[in-house]
């Protein structure tokens, strides 16, 4: 890693919250595509556990999910020797930079964030300040490592845009300091929708058959896919407006098999819905079974995970500290 940091590879940063379990949507939308980035870029994949605190968490579960997320990263194929993988809370510079960047972010900007509006509606009883400044911590995650590229889904684009605005603003006042990050546009992961409500993104906070979790047993997966909402015209074709359920099953299929939607449609168009569901369930199970096995192995070896986290956090701190000090000097703290 140290050698690659001095190389001219571009830096990619992304993170997932360890709140709840990882869904098939998280996997196909992000994790699976990250695996393809690890040779070409300096990749930093963080478990952003501080972001999770913006919503009430059960401490025991949070602790467990945080470690398990890293185990899943590894089980899914991210090499802990090639990528920096660590817990956000282990690198204190994230929150330090976050305070500073809070002072360069306007109330009005944060107030416009769609996710803040959505979450304040959803967690009406707990609209805390952390929920409001969430995007500033995210900007800090990104800017702290002079990140060039951020692979993010549609729902995080606005936050990335804000991170760019903050970087540009800071650079304007103090001279070139931060790299203005770009969204990573490449072979991005699929947007997987809920099985019971295919008009909304599959969310790991749903637990009613809408979401497949990476740790679901095969028979559970089969049952969830069997109960997925479809339509009544018995045609297998991709049409997200009129056929969101079938389109979602096709997205899942093509994303796992790495076939195009067109190829998948062609291959499956003569099947009945029952068969389609069976086929989709099978490819899901085939894809995630090896991940589950590796995951179970890794979970037995907590020392190994702890050691990886420790080593990677040390490497991350080194970069973070250097860049934070540069900021301190520019603004007059040092
Ligand atoms: N907000 C992101 C999400 O919920 C997670 C996240 C935190 C993130 N910091 C990040 C993603 C930095 C990319 C880069 O999906």
Verbal overview:
The chain is mostly helical and 334 residues long. The protein folds into two domains: 11-184 and 302-331, HUPs (Rossmann fold), CATH 3.40.50; 218-295, Orthogonal Bundle (Tyrosyl-Transfer RNA Synthetase), CATH 1.10.240.10. Helix content is 55%, strand content 6%. It has 14 helices and five strands. The chain has helices spanning 2-6, 24-35, 49-52, 59-75, 93-102, 107-111, 114-122, 129-144, 157-174, 218-226, 244-257, 261-268, 273-300, 302-331, and strands spanning 11-16, 42-47, 84-87, 149-150, 182-183. The strands form two sheets. Strands 1-2-3 form a three-stranded parallel beta sheet. A two-stranded parallel sheet has the order 4-5. Helix 2 (24-35) links the parallel strand 1 (11-16) and strand 2. Helix 5 packs parallel to helix 14 (302-331). The longest helix is centred in the C-terminal third of the chain and has 30 residues, at 302-331. The chain is globular, with a radius of gyration of 21 Å. The two termini are 29 Å apart. The model has no long low-confidence stretch (mean pLDDT 94). The chain binds tryptophan.
Write the layout of secondary structure elements.
Elements: H1 2-6, E1 11-16, H2 24-35, E2 42-47, H3 49-52, H4 59-75, E3 84-87, H5 93-102, H6 107-111, H7 114-122, H8 129-144, E4 149-150, H9 157-174, E5 182-183, H10 218-226, H11 244-257, H12 261-268, H13 273-300, H14 302-331
Residues 13-15, 17, 48, 51, 138, 141-142, 150, 152, 156 line the site of tryptophan.
């Amino acid at each position: 890693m140290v050698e690659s940091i001095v190389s001219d590879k571009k830096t990619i940063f992304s993170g997932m919250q360890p709140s709840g379990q990882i869904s098939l949507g998280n996997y196909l939308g992000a994790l699976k595509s990250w695996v393809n980035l690890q040779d070409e870029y300096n990749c930093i994949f963080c478990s952003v556990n501080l972001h999770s605190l913006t919503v009430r968490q059960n401490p025991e579960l949070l602790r467990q999910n945080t470690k398990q997320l890293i185990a899943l990263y590894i089980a899914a194929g991210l090499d802990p020797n090639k990528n920096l993988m660590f817990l956000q809370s282990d690198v204190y510079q994230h929150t330090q930079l976050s305070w500073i960047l809070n002072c360069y972010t306007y109330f009005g900007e944060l107030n416009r964030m769609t996710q803040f509006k959505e979450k304040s509606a959803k967690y009406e009883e707990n609209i805390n300040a952390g929920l409001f400044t969430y995007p500033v911590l995210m900007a800090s995650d990104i800017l702290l490592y002079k990140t060039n590229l951020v692979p993010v889904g549609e729902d995080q684009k606005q936050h990335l845009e804000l991170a760019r605005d903050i970087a540009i603003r800071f650079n304007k006042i103090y001279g070139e300091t931060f790299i203005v990050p770009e969204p990573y546009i490449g072979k991005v992961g699929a947007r997987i929708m809920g099985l019971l409500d295919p008009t909304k993104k599959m969310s790991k906070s749903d637990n009613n058959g809408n979401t497949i979790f990476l740790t679901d047993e095969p028979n559970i997966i089969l049952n969830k896919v069997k109960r997925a909402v479809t339509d009544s015209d018995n045609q297998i074709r991709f049409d997200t407006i009129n056929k969101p359920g079938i389109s979602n099953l096709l997205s899942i299929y093509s994303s796992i098999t790495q076939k195009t939607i067109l190829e998948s449609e062609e291959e499956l168009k003569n099947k009945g819905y029952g068969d389609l569901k069976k086929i989709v369930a099978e490819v899901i199970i085939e894809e995630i079974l090896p991940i589950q096995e590796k995951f179970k192995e890794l979970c037995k070896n907590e020392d190994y995970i702890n050691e990886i986290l420790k080593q990677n956090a040390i490497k991350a701190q080194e970069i973070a500290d250097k860049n934070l000090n540069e900021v301190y000097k520019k603004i007059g703290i040092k």
